[in-house]
Amino acid sequence: MSFDLDANIVKEKANELGADLVGIVSADTLNEFPPDPKWPQTPDRISPHVKSVIVISKRIPVGAFRSKSNIPVQYMDMLVLRAMDKVGYRLTEWLESQGYPAFVTAAQETDWSYKKASYGRLSTRHLGIEAGLGTFGLEVNILTPEFGPRVYLTGILTEATIEADERITEQVCIGESCSRCLYSCPSDAVRHFGIDKRECATEAQEFGFATILKFWGQFINESEEKKRDLLRDREIFGFWQGLLRVVGSFGDCPRCLAVCPVGNDYHAFLSDIQKVIPEKTPEKVEKAKGFKEARKNGDPVDGLNDWNVRWVGPEGYKGMVARQLQAFKKEQREKEEAAAKK
Ligand code: SF4
Ligand code: SF4
Question: Do the domain assignments include residue 102?
Answer without folding.
Answer: yes
